[in-house]
Amino acid sequence: MIDQFDAYAEYYNLFYEGKDYKGESEYVHQLIETHHKGALKVLELGCGSGGHARELLKYGYSIHGVDISSRMLEQAKLSIRNDGAKVSFSLGDARTLALNKKFDVVLSLFHVLGYQNSDEDVLKTFLTAYEHLKPGGLFIYDFWYGPTVLSDGPSTRVLKIKKDHQEILRISEPNMDLENHLCKINYSIFVKEATGLYKRIDELHSMRYFFQDEFMHFESNKFICLDELAWMSQLPLAQGNWYGVRICKKPSI
Predict the structure, then answer these.
(1) Which domains are delineated in the chain?
(2) Where are the alpha helices (DSSP H) in 43-106?
(3) Is 176 helix (H, G, I), strand (E, B) or coil?
(4) d(CA 137, CA 35)
(5) Which residue pairs, CB below 8 angstroms and at least 24 apart, start in 53-59?
(6) Distance of alpha carbon 10 from alpha carbon 6, whole angstroms
(7) Nearest residue to 144 (alpha-carbon basis) of 153, 133, 135, 136
């Protein structure tokens, strides 16, 4: 199994220290309450270092997190080690996962779906969600919204971090692959070591963006879309929104 986040994982929590996991998890909880009140068992595909799982536990859910990165899972287990009775983690690929368990809700957050670069990979991920849901269960996933990605365009970004004795510089340089609906982001990470010299890490992350008509194909015969919203709002997804969320239901019969 390829661990795309192998080097990146060591600094992941520093890069996203300001991410509003609490607010996002409250938002997801409200979506669940609206569309499947009483849901308890949650499967998170691409749980990363456990930021959403940690917050969702506060609402009484029982959560199983899956990630393709063993190093991410190590961090997740460390961050939630006091809640072991209601949370578990396992190494796995969203495209091929087979837990032989059923859940009330399957989540795919923080653009995990975007890492599924081909139609085949997306369809396999949707099948994984379908196979792990109870009848009537929800599949909630977020995504990059294609029309806004194309109109606004991603830009080069520089992130500087100084914390304790660490100094890190991350440069994100995007390149668009319009034919395949991909934004290929080159990450160059410079870490200042105790010697005063910098260690360099280079990683390429290919992120897919999506258009609404594609989801009809991916969801067909498996899910009913209950709602599509601009991420972190109750407003319909529209031009100008970078991120969207869809709430889908597995038919009860």
Answers:
(1) 8-146+209-249 (3.40.50.150), 148-208 (2.20.25.110)
(2) 51-56, 70-79
(3) strand
(4) 9
(5) 53/80, 53/87, 54/21, 54/79, 54/80, 54/83, 55/21, 55/22, 55/24, 55/25, 55/26, 56/25, 56/28, 56/29, 57/83, 57/86, 57/87, 58/25, 59/25, 59/29
(6) 8
(7) 153
* pLDDT tens digits, one per residue of 36-87: 999 999 999 999 999 999 999 999 999 999 999 999 999 999 888 766 679 9
> 16 vs 139, which has greater pLDDT?
139
What is the C-alpha to C-alpha distance for residues 126 and 222, in angstroms, rounded to an integer? 8
Kindly report each contact of residues 205-208 with a partner whose C-beta sits within 8 Å and lies 24 or more positions away, as own/partner.
Answer: 205/4, 205/115, 206/115, 206/117, 206/177, 206/182, 207/111, 207/114, 207/115, 207/144, 207/182, 207/183, 208/113, 208/114, 208/115, 208/116, 208/117, 208/122, 208/144, 208/180, 208/181, 208/182, 208/183
What is the C-alpha to C-alpha distance for residues 13 and 43, in angstroms, rounded to an integer? 21
Separation CA 163–CA 33 (nearest Å): 38
